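Continuing the series of single-chain predictions for the mutant panel. This is the parent chain; the variants come on the following pages.
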Amino acid sequence: MKTLVTGATGFIGEFLVRELIRRGHHVRALVRPGRDTGKLEKLGVEIRSGDLLNRESLSGICDGIDTVFHLAGRVTDWGTREQFYRAIYDATMNLIDEAAGNARRFLYMSSVAAIGFGRHMKGIRETDTAYKSGIPYNDAKLDTESLVLSHHEARNIACTVIRPTNVIGPGSVWVRDIIEKMKRMPMPLVDGGRHSSSLISVDNLVDGTILAASSDTARGKTYHFRDDWEVTWKEYINDLGGLIGKKPFGSLPYYPARMLATILDFVCTPMSLRPPVSRMSIETTGRNNDIDNTLAKTELGWKTKVTYPEAMRSIGAWVRDTYGQG
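Parent structure:
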């Protein structure tokens, strides 16, 4: 299989590229000018320079490609609506327009956030109604899903949407951001950290992503990926903090925390300041986001392979290399 990967220098992208290469697939990576491509080149990846917001730079990028894995986007819990829509919606529109009529498959990496935060999502299926929650990242993801699937319905290109939960592994934002916050300041739990952390190992996600890209059944479908781990936020944050000798400090009730985060988003974002706590972070850690993953299991044969202890061991090794001993 000849593949194009966007976001190949990012966290999930790097793991996906390595696994595609290991399985014998040819990988072409779209990389913005100035990015370090040394790791990719050592793996034998074909490097193409371009910018997803510059249509001319994408000309020919999908020539000879079987499957496009589109992972690039703005991945953070804060920012303006314009920043998220340009990096997520506009960038995807440019890429899929180029891919249509050239590549055969288009796999879009979305997020559980697209379903719409502000409620417990335990058991929600792919066919259940998603709605906009007013959080720019979430809304941009949902609109981009609709854009991608509209191309499938128009028979421009066969498309599949992937919605992972909170992806962890060496270098994940759900590792790096939490550890760096705990090193800077006291970090409270939300609602006592009693809700499921709804995690998925990057290795398990990559396995499911490749399964979806290889399945004819997956054409035009959306799939939820969440590992079957029984791990609360309290357990996970304590496990992470233990790697650097830190512990969470106290707890914030969900509704007051949500109100505070909404105010901080409103005040800090226009000044290009990252808020100390964002509404997105509160919605993620203060609600149960154990979306239903049955469809991926029954249609793709996917299952959790890497266990939570195994995932934490690899994270621990990365933390020691990056931050030293706690």
